[in-house]
């Protein structure tokens, strides 16, 4: 038990602050749509999904000389489209394609740099791996914390804040709070690590579907497309996608990512949890003809389970109640990580600080 306690303390002291920052930024990102609705013009507009409106917007946006590589369409909670370019540039446009906001760097938009830190630690793929490893370490803290708490379970108290800012009270609060929110932490840390670490995600789903089968099911079609037509009929393209998946919500429009590539449209069917769905339709850029499609609901079981990681992690399902639950999870992780670092570096050895007794003075001679 002593070795386990030392391991828990030292690893928590070393990466507790990183977990605290991930928890805090995650709690903020849960409410991204509400922030945008309050601060961005047209963000509170009602979503429009009719073919004519989507096609007119796509024609206008993709006709620009400096056109985006893809568009993420408005949702029921966010009434603007977001444009993505090859670099950090981005923009919001209204649902008619009119300009709303544009930026040239992630640092210009709080939701952009918060996501970049939370998901990539400002370091691209390398930061994504580090964040995934931190998530696995967080799971280790939950497990070891539960083991260390068990002998002290009779002293369990529910407190949002330590009774006093002394080491013993902070440690007691740390253990009790960790136990209280353990299910939420397990959910958020597991889904976060699975999104960042491909091998971990595959290991979790391997009992349901072999990784090779999931890879094959999610691969893009090996079909070459022609040169993007200047007068592409977006109404026909989008109409074909909607006809292939009746009742589905059109979520993204993407131009070919490379030469001979295809136009890609993502759709979300009603039973799909993932905000942008996993149902896909691919088109020849030269003719606008549908050349391939993939039904997100027909993917292997393991892949469908993996598709639930993001909506569960980012509270994209369950409405306001679940967003508040995941906010509590993020803030609890912030508090646990911060106080772990404070108590550790205040006393790395973990031993109680004793006051030195003043030396007894001899009684004065009479």
Automatic annotation (TrEMBL):
The keyword Transmembrane applies. InterPro entries: PepSY-ass_TM (IPR005625). Signal peptide: none annotated. Pfam families: PepSY_TM. The chain crosses the membrane at residues 12-31, 129-150, 177-197, 320-346. The keyword Translocase does not apply. Keywords: Membrane, Transmembrane, Transmembrane helix. PANTHER family: BLL7967 PROTEIN, IRON-REGULATED INNER MEMBRANE PROTEIN-RELATED. This is PepSY domain-containing protein. The lineage of its organism: Bacteria, Pseudomonadati, Pseudomonadota, Alphaproteobacteria, Caulobacterales.
